[in-house]
TrEMBL record, chain A:
<dbReference type="InterPro" id="IPR033945">
    <property type="entry name" value="Cyt_c_oxase_su3_dom"/>
</dbReference>
<keyword id="KW-0812">Transmembrane</keyword>
<dbReference type="InterPro" id="IPR013833">
    <property type="entry name" value="Cyt_c_oxidase_su3_a-hlx"/>
</dbReference>
<keyword id="KW-1003">Cell membrane</keyword>
<protein>
    <recommendedName>
        <fullName>Probable cytochrome c oxidase subunit 3</fullName>
        <ecNumber>7.1.1.9</ecNumber>
    </recommendedName>
</protein>
<dbReference type="Pfam" id="PF00510">
    <property type="entry name" value="COX3"/>
</dbReference>
<feature type="transmembrane region" description="Helical">
    <location>
        <begin position="91"/>
        <end position="116"/>
    </location>
</feature>
<dbReference type="InterPro" id="IPR000298">
    <property type="entry name" value="Cyt_c_oxidase-like_su3"/>
</dbReference>
<comment type="similarity">
    <text>Belongs to the cytochrome c oxidase subunit 3 family.</text>
</comment>
Automatic annotation (TrEMBL), chain B:
<feature type="transmembrane region" description="Helical">
    <location>
        <begin position="165"/>
        <end position="191"/>
    </location>
</feature>
<keyword id="KW-0679">Respiratory chain</keyword>
<feature type="transmembrane region" description="Helical">
    <location>
        <begin position="40"/>
        <end position="61"/>
    </location>
</feature>
<comment type="pathway">
    <text>Energy metabolism; oxidative phosphorylation.</text>
</comment>
<keyword id="KW-1003">Cell membrane</keyword>
<dbReference type="GO" id="GO:0006119">
    <property type="term" value="P:oxidative phosphorylation"/>
</dbReference>
<keyword id="KW-0812">Transmembrane</keyword>
<dbReference type="GO" id="GO:0020037">
    <property type="term" value="F:heme binding"/>
</dbReference>
<protein>
    <recommendedName>
        <fullName>Cytochrome c oxidase subunit 1</fullName>
        <ecNumber>7.1.1.9</ecNumber>
    </recommendedName>
</protein>
C-alpha cells in the first residue's frame, strides 16, 4: 500500500494513506447488528425465517475479512519500520483506554448486581425505606441468593446454585495461573528466548481453553441439573450476564494470544519491540482481574 | 511566536506532503485525513440537525393548538423520541467531534489524529447507525415511542419490536464514540508539538480531553443498559422486572449514570469553543486560564455523582434525595467560575461583535439562564412540582440550543475562514444570529411558564389555558427552524467562494491554527512546530 508520508526513521509521525478497512468494517458491523436484530425478533415472534442468520453470517464474514486485512496492514507497516516510538505510544494509550472502557462495561453489570442485592430485593421483601414495595407481592421474602422470585410463574427460581468451591474454584486457579504463565512468556520474549516464549504462551492458551471448557460444562450443569437459567429471575440474570460476558472476553483474549503465538512462530517481534504481544497480555490480565471480582461477588459472597 | 505563516515552510522537505487530496467520492470514503473526517462529521451532524429539526417542527405544529389535529398520539411519541435521540447522538455529539477533528491537531501542532484509520471508522459507523435508527420508523409497530430516555418497562415489556434495532443502533453509536474518544486522548497526550505543555494547550483542547474521558467512562455503561434491555426483551432475564426480583428503577440508575455525564459531554466542548472566541474578540487573554481548566475537571468529576437528580420523584430513599440534591447544587460553583471568567475576559476589553462573538455572548447569557433553571430543578422538594413538565423541557433546551448548538455555530463561524479560505457573508450571518436568537427564545422561554403551571411534557394535547404560550412557542420554533436553512446557504456560499481569508482573519485571535494559511493545507505540521 502506498504511503504519503514515509516516516518513522526521520522522526515524523506515520500517517497512513487511504484505507478501505474503515468502510469495510462499518458495513460488516452494520450487517452483523442488523442480522442479530432480525434473528432475535424472529425468535421472539416464533417465526421460521432464516434471513437474520444469513445477514448475520455475511456480516461476520465481512468482519473477519476486515480484521485479517486491517491488522495485516498494521503488522506489515510495523515490520517495515514505519512506526516511531511515538506511534508506539499512541497504540499504548489506545489499548489502555480501550481496556478501561471494557472495565466500565463490566462496572454497569456489577453495579446492577449490587443494586438489586443491597436495595431492590430487600425492598421487595419489605425491609428498608422503600419496603412498601412488599405490597406488590405480600408474601414475598427477600433472600440472597434469591431462590424464590416474587412472581414464580414467570420466573421460576433456581433449584440449586453452583458450588463456588468446585468448578468455579478450578476456573479461578486456571485463570490466575494463566496470568502468571503469560507474564513468564513476556519475560522470555524480553530475554529473547523464543523457545521459552512459545512454551509459556502455549501453556497460557491451553489454560484459557480449559477454562472455557469448564465454564461450558458449568453452564450445562446449571441448565440441566440445577435449574439455574437466564429465566430464573434476577440471580440467573446477573449470574449469566456477568459470567457470560466474561467468557466472551476470555474467548477474545485467547484469540489475541493465539494470533501472538502464530506471529512468534513466524519470527515476528524483537526483545524490545513487541507491543502487539503486550497489548494481548494486558487484555489477558484484565479478564483475569474481572474473574477475581466475579468469583468473589457472584459465587462466594 | 510570530504571526508569519509556517505551514508551507514546514512542508518543503517532504515533497509528497504538499499534494492535495485525491479526487472523487472515494476521497471521502477511504480518507485518513483529519480535515476530511472533520468535514464529514460536520456535514453529517448538520444533516441530522435538519432531520431532528424536522421532527421538532412536527411536534410544534401538533402543539400549535390544543386538541389533536395533525398526527396521532402514537406518531407524536415517536417524534419526541426520535427528535431527542437524533439531536443528542446525531447532531450535537458528531458536531463537536467534527470540530475536534479539524481543530485539535492544528491547535497542538500535530500532523493528524493519532490513529487516522480508526478515526475514519468512527465516522463511517454513524451513517449506518442512523440509517438503522431512522429505519425503525418504517417498521411494523412503528419506531421507538418511549422517549429518548427509554425507561423500562416502556422500552421492554411495552415496546414495539423495532426496539431491538434501536438497541443495536445505540451499540453502534457507542462503538463510534468510544473509538473517537480514544483517538482524541491519544492525540492530545502523545502528539503535542515540543513546548506545548498541558497548561499551554488552548482551552478547547482541554475541554475535549476531559470530554473524551467522560465518553470512555460512560458510553460502555450505555451499552450495558441497552444490553440488559435486550436480554429482558428476548432472553427472559429480569433486570427491570420486579416479578423476577429486578427493578425498573435499576434501569433509571444505570441509564442516568450514563446520562448525566452525557449532558456534560455535550456542553464541555462548547465551553472550550466559547473560551477560544471570547478572548479573541475582547482582544485580551482569557481571564483565569488555570481556574478554567480546574473548573472543567471539577464539573466532569461531579457529573458522576449527581445522576439521581433525574429521579427525585421515582422513589429513592431520603438520604439519596438529599445527597443528590446537594451534589447537584455543587456543580453551580465551578460553572459559576467559568461564567465569571468569561465576563471578566470581556471586562474592559476592546470588544467587537463579529458573528462568532455574537453567538458566544448569547451563549454566556442564555446558558446561564439554563443553568439557573437547573439549579431550581436540583431542589428535590421543588422538583416534585417541576418533574416531567415543560419546565424541564425549557431547562434542557436552554442549555442545549443556546448552549451547545450556539457554541457550534460560533465555532463554525470562527473557523470557517480557516477551513474554506473564504470569508463568509457577514451580514447574512448576523441575520442568522438574530433570527436564531429571537426564534429560540420565543420557543423555549414560554415553556418555563406553561411548565410551572403544570403542562406535562410528551403529550400531544394540552389544557386550554396553555394555548397562547404554545402558539408563541410554535411560531418561534418555525422561525428558528427556517433560519437554519439560511445557515446552510451561508456555509455553502462560503465554501463556493467569497473574499479571500487571511491566515489570521480575526485580529485578536491567538493559537497555532492561525499560523497556517487559509484554507489550511491538506497536511499541516508534518514536522512539529516549536512552541515557545
Amino acid at each position: 500500500m502506498a504511503t504519503e508520508h514515509q516516516a518513522g526513521g526521520d522522526g515524523t509521525y506515520y500517517v497512513p494513506a487511504q484505507s478501505k478497512w474503515p468502510i469495510v468494517a462499518s458495513i460488516g458491523l452494520f450487517l452483523t447488528m442488523v442480522g442479530a436484530g432480525l434473528m432475535m425478533n424472529n425468535m421472539s415472534a416464533g417465526g421460521q425465517s432464516a434471513t437474520g442468520h444469513y445477514v448475520f453470517f455475511a456480516g461476520a464474514l465481512v468482519m473477519a475479512y476486515m480484521l485479517f486485512g486491517w491488522f495485516g496492514d498494521v503488522v506489515r507497516e510495523s515490520r517495515a519500520g514505519l512506526y516511531s516510538p511515538q506511534m508506539d505510544r499512541s497504540f499504548r494509550w489506545g489499548m489502555g483506554w480501550f481496556i478501561f472502557s471494557e472495565v466500565m462495561f463490566f462496572a454497569a453489570f456489577f453495579g446492577a448486581l449490587f443494586f438489586v442485592r443491597y436495595y431492590a430485593v430487600p425492598w421487595l421483601g419489605g425491609e428498608g425505606e422503600k419496603g412498601s414495595s412488599n405490597m406488590l407481592w405480600p408474601g414475598f421474602e427477600a433472600a440472597w441468593p434469591l431462590m424464590t422470585n416474587p412472581d414464580s410463574e414467570t420466573f421460576p427460581g433456581p433449584e440449586k446454585l453452583v458450588d463456588p468451591w468446585t468448578l468455579p474454584l478450578i476456573n479461578t486457579i486456571l485463570l490466575v495461573t494463566s496470568s502468571f504463565t503469560c507474564t513468564k512468556a513476556h519475560h522470555a520474549l524480553v530475554a529473547d528466548n523464543r523457545k521459552s516464549t512459545q512454551t509459556w504462551l502455549a501453556i497460557t492458551l491451553v489454560l484459557g481453553a480449559v477454562f472455557l471448557v469448564v465454564q461450558g460444562y458449568e453452564y450445562y450443569h446449571a441448565y440441566n441439573d440445577l435449574g439455574l437459567t437466564l429465566n430464573s429471575g434476577i440471580y440467573g440474570s446477573t449470574f449469566f450476564m456477568l459470567t457470560g460476558f466474561h467468557g466472551a472476553h476470555v474467548t477474545l483474549g485467547a484469540i489475541m494470544l493465539l494470533v501472538m503465538f502464530i506471529r512468534i512462530n513466524k519470527g515476528h517481534f524483537t526483545s524490545k519491540n513487541h507491543f502487539g504481544f503486550e497489548a494481548a497480555a494486558w487484555y489477558w490480565h484484565f479478564v483475569d482481574v474481572v474473574w477475581i471480582g466475579l468469583f468473589l461477588f457472584v459465587y462466594v459472597l | 511566536m510570530t504571526d508569519q505563516t509556517i505551514g508551507h515552510v514546514n512542508d518543503h522537505d517532504d515533497s509528497h506532503a504538499d499534494h492535495g487530496p485525491p479526487k472523487g467520492l472515494m476521497r471521502w470514503v477511504l480518507t485518513t485525513n483529519h480535515k476530511d473526517i472533520g468535514s464529514m462529521y460536520m456535514w453529517f451532524s448538520f444533516a441530522m440537525f435538519l432531520l431532528g429539526g424536522a421532527m421538532a417542527m412536527v411536534i410544534r405544529a401538533e402543539l400549535f393548538q390544543p386538541g389533536l389535529q395533525l398526527v396521532q398520539p402514537e406518531f407524536f411519541n415517536q417524534m419526541t423520541t426520535m427528535h431527542g435521540l437524533i439531536m443528542v447522538f446525531g447532531a450535537v455529539m458528531p458536531a463537536f467531534v467534527g470540530l475536534a477533528n479539524w481543530m485539535i491537531p492544528m491547535m497542538i501542532g500535530a500532523p493528524d489524529m493519532a490513529l487516522p484509520r480508526m478515526n475514519n471508522w468512527s465516522f463511517w459507523i454513524l451513517p449506518f447507525a442512523f440509517a438503522l435508527l431512522v429505519s425503525t420508523l418504517f417498521m411494523e409497530g412503528g419506531g421507538p415511542n418511549f422517549g429518548w430516555t427509554f425507561y423500562a418497562p416502556l422500552s421492554t415489556d411495552y415496546a414495539p419490536p423495532s426496539t431491538t434495532f434501536f438497541i443495536f443502533a445505540v451499540h453502534m453509536m457507542g462503538v463510534s464514540s468510544i473509538m473517537g474518544a480514544i483517538n482524541v486522548i491519544a492525540t492530545i497526550l502523545n502528539l503535542r508539538a515540543p513546548g506545548m505543555t498541558l497548561m499551554k494547550m488552548p482551552l478547547f483542547v482541554w475541554t475535549w480531553l476531559i470530554t473524551a474521558y467522560l465518553l470512555i467512562a460512560v458510553m460502555p455503561v450505555l451499552a450495558g443498559v441497552v444490553t440488559m434491555m435486550l436480554m429482558d426483551i428476548h432472553f427472559g432475564t429480569a433486570f427491570f422486572n420486579a416479578g423476577g426480583g429486578g427493578d425498573p428503577v435499576l434501569f433509571q440508575h444505570v441509564f442516568w449514570f450514563f446520562g448525566h455525564p452525557e449532558v456534560y459531554i455535550m456542553i464541555l466542548p462548547a465551553f472550550g469553543v466559547v473560551s477560544q472566541i471570547i478572548p479573541a474578540f475582547s482582544r485580551k487573554p482569557l481571564f483565569g486560564y488555570t481556574s478554567m481548566v480546574y473548573a472543567v475537571a471539577s464539573i466532569a468529576f461531579l457529573s458522576f455523582i449527581v445522576w439521581a437528580h433525574h429521579m427525585f420523584t421515582v422513589g429513592i430513599p431520603l438520604v439519596g434525595e438529599v445527597f443528590f440534591m446537594y451534589a447537584t447544587m455543587l456543580i453551580a460553583v465551578p460553572t459559576g467560575v467559568k461564567v465569571f471568567n468569561w465576563v471578566a475576559t470581556m471586562f474592559r476589553g476592546a470588544l467587537t461583535f463579529e458573528t462568532p462573538m455574537l453567538f458566544a455572548v448569547a451563549f454566556v447569557v442564555l446558558f446561564t439562564i439554563g443553568g439557573f433553571s437547573g439549579l431550581m430543578l436540583s431542589i428535590a422538594p421543588a422538583d416534585f412540582q417541576y418533574h416531567d413538565t415543560y419546565f424541564v423541557v425549557a431547562h434542557f433546551h436552554y442549555v442545549l440550543v443556546p448552549g451547545a448548538i450556539f457554541a457550534i455555530f460560533a465555532g463554525v463561524y470562527y473557523w470557517l475562514p480557516k477551513w474554506t479560505g473564504h470569508m463568509y457573508d457577514a451580514g447574512l450571518s448576523k441575520v442568522h444570529f438574530w433570527m436564531s436568537f429571537i426564534g429560540m427564545n420565543l420557543t423555549f422561554f414560554p415553556m418555563h411558564f406553561v411548565g410551572l403551571a403544570g403542562m406535562p411534557r410528551r403529550i400531544p394535547d394540552y389544557a386550554l389555558q396553555f394555548a397562547d404560550f404554545n402558539m408563541i412557542a410554535s411560531i418561534g420554533g418555525f422561525m428558528f427552524g427556517v433560519t437554519q436553512l439560511l445557515f446552510l446557504f451561508i456555509v455553502i456560499k462560503c465554501v463556493k467562494g467569497g473574499p479571500k481569508a487571511e491566515a489570521k482573519p480575526w485580529e485578536g485571535a491567538h493559537g497555532l491554527e492561525w499560523m497556517v494559511p487559509s484554507p489550511a493545507p491538506y497536511h499541516t505540521f508534518t514536522t512539529p512546530p516549536d512552541v515557545k
